[in-house]
Amino acid sequence: MSLSVAPRRFAGRLLIMMASLLLAGTASAAEPTQAQRAAFKQAYAAAQGGGDNWRSLAKGLEDYPIYPYLEAAALTHNLRQIGRTQVESYLKRYPDQIPAGDLRRDFLGELARRQDWDNFLAMYQPGQGDALACNALQAQLSKGAQLDFDRDLAALWAKAKLPGACDPVLSAAHDQGLLTPQRLWERIDRAADAVQPGSINAMAAWLPAEDAEAAKRLASALSDPGAAAVAANQWPDTPRNRQAAAMAVERLARRQSVTADIAWQKLQDRFAFTQPQRDRVVYALALFHATDYDEGALSRLAALPAALQTDVSREWRVRAALAQRDWRAVLAAIDAMPPTQQQDGEWRWFRARALTELDRGAEAQRVLTPLAQEPTFYGFLAADRLEQPYGICQLQLTSNAKREQALLANRGLQRAFELFAVGLPRQARREWSQALDGTDAETQRLAVVLAYRRGWYDRAVFTFNNGEALRYYEQRFPLASQDGLVTQAQEAGIDPSWAYAILRAESAWMSDARSGADARGLMQLLPSTAALVAKRNGISWGGGDTLFDPVTNIILGTRYLAQMAQRFSGSIWLASAAYNAGPGKVDQWLEARGALPPDLFVATIPYKETREYVARVMSFAVIYDWRQHGNAVTLSQRLTPIGQGFDLASVNGERKLVGCPVAAPAVPAEAATAAPASSMAPPASTSNGTH
Q1: Measuring CA to CA, how many Å separate 270 from each of 62, 257, 263, 515?
Q2: At the topology level of CATH, where does 485-659 sit?
Q3: Pairing state of beta strands 658-659 and 390-391?
Q4: Where is the signal peptide (predicted)?
């Protein structure tokens, strides 16, 4: 290399370095300021009230990433007063943005309300939901068009439930003679499978009188199976009445298995049920006698023909045996499972428990040894039994400054981060999903890094949900201090690790979480419950919406947890069950099976959601304890016998070390939350629904 070239190369590199620094400075300067965010919040509040007052408050924000949300909010508020020109002007300026799609959809709904079909058809785009699809068909009908079943209705007709906007279209289809009895019965059967009695009753009106009565009986079997099972004793033996009678008994078994048994004894000789119908009823009776822990339930499940058994029935055979502490029956039930089901951590634990109780300790240890390396509820119990460290293998997230800067140039992510920063997390999540749709795992990982730095913790929970990513414990189990959880838990007299675990299980750190039952915020409190807790503790109460404020939610949530713990003699695992299912349900279970040790009691909780919730919360408490202290009070110490409380102070000195096995085991994904008593597997399926 010549001496004259080297200085030029050095100068070139220096220029590149200076340019990089300049670019970095530009990116930093482009980061929105707190003043901009404050101005946006003011303008957004004004825009939500309609009119143009927001514009004066938004001066200087024209280049702010989420500026389009302001005008969209104002237009949405004024939906009944605005016209197509205003909406199309907005759509033209922001064609691919989420608020534009929302505005188009909402305005189309308004045009349908006005029955302004000309403008509706001019603006309509397919793929915006069933209601607008039906509005579009109604618009065509208003122009004198005729419906074609295959072209216009087949896709809608395949759905068990449709919105009210489809009623005029279906009426027109009926008037055109398109809804033949065969088509009506096909959809009635789909509605029956989907448990939609309302849809069945609506279609019954278009059937001949005799068929209409049969359809109404199907609807009755779904909505009031007890009454239908009694009424069936007077029905003639027809194929449709057999269907309704069998369905009534099957549905009744979920609610009252003994009553369903009595009804079946009366009906099985009255009707010439098909073999599949008989199989479904026999399966339902066996399964739901087990979920009620009735006498004889275990033998009924064991006697089910192999063709009728499912993963659900085999699982409940184990639970019924556990409730009786019949350890030989436990082993037999687990042995009857297919190999893949046997590998579930729960069944490996109870296989080891049964082997231990039957004095086969060496076999039990061989089962427990690999299980003890897994960072799960049953893995932690196995580690406690073997007196081994917990197998928590943490991965550290690494940063990549260059790629992060490139990612920050993504306008969709910019909008997502700003929406989160100004307190609009729902909109932020939508922008996040759109911006990262189709991206690779590394891009998503870096996006989570950026979100985590901004205090947006739920992104890690939902992104790192399988495989090796489950080992990013720092991000998946954040120790957010800004909301005061540790202080509030200590003031309430409860273990902060348990409070963290409840919060993590309830909302996954989504401060705006809201359940179908109207539970709100980080710790998912009902407004009515929160009001009582506030009154009991002398805390000011500002109404249900204050539960979306993390600080308020945590203050009230920790006090309610303390209240539940006190109600159950200080038992935090029973209090966790009560937090999920309600204290009344836990009282019922204690009355029925209160003599069981904790692990058996948890396994025999009738609700799948609550079983998994308790296991999840208690394992999360161990992980959060380790996250705070580097070691953890054992899970076995937390699972105090029924009637005894958990006293953190008395066990704080007895902590478990955490280590990473030489060959780190795969981390099982967290259990999904399912509603109790939601679905039952038919004999030929492997559904996970339970009572």
Answers
A1: 75, 20, 11, 45
A2: Lysozyme (1.10.530)
A3: parallel
A4: 1-29
Nearest to 614 by CA among 626, 593, 600: 600
Q: How far from chain centre, in Å, is Cα 435?
A: 22
- Which of 308-317, 533-542, 667-676 shows the lowest mean pLDDT across its residues? 667-676
Helix or strand (DSSP H, E) at 632: strand 632-633
Render the burial of 504-525: b for 16+ CB within 10 Å, e for the rest.
Answer: bbbbbbbbbbbeeeebbbbbbb
Please compute Rg for the chain using Cα positions.
Answer: 30
Q: How far apart are the first and last CA of the chain?
A: 80
Amino acid found at 332: A
Is 306:272 a contact under the CB 8 Å cutoff?
no
Cα dihedral sign, 17-18-20-24:
positive
Residue 107's CB is within 10 A of a number of other CB atoms, namely 24
Q: Which of 648, 260, 297, 325 is CA-nearest to residue 490?
A: 648
Nearest to 267 by CA among 248, 286, 254: 248
Average pLDDT across the chain, whole number: 91
- Percentage above 90 pLDDT, the chain: 88
CA–CA distance, 371 with 388 (Å, rounded to integer): 11
Is the pLDDT score of 5 beyond 60? no
Tracing tokens 């705006």 back to the chain, one arrives at 512
Of 523, 505, 449, 496, which Cα lies nearest the Cα of 617?
A: 505
d(CA 584, CA 600): 20
Distance CA 465, CA 450 (A): 18
Mean pLDDT calculated for residue range 254-281: 96
Residue 144 CA, distance from chain mean position: 45
Q: What is the DSSP string of 98-166?
A: HHHHHHHHHHHHHHHHHT-HHHHHHH--S-S-HHHHHHHHHHHHHTT----IIIIIHHHHTSS---GGG
Question: What CATH class is the domain 401-471?
Answer: mainly alpha
Residue with tokens 């038919």: 682
Q: Hey, CA dihedral for 209, 214, 219, 223, is it positive or negative? A: positive
Q: How far apart are CA 286 and CA 299, in angstroms?
A: 9
Residue 365 CB coordination number (10 Å): 16
Render pLDDT for 606-653 as a digit per residue (tens, 0 to 9): 999 999 999 999 999 999 999 999 999 999 999 999 999 998 887 777
pLDDT at 666: 57
Q: What is the pLDDT of residue 217?
A: 98
According to DSSP, the residues that pair with 391 across neighbouring strands are: 659
Q: Which residues are catalytic?
A: 506
Residue 398: closest CA among 474, 440, 444, 449? 449
pLDDT value of residue 478: 96
Token pair belonging to 237: 């033996």
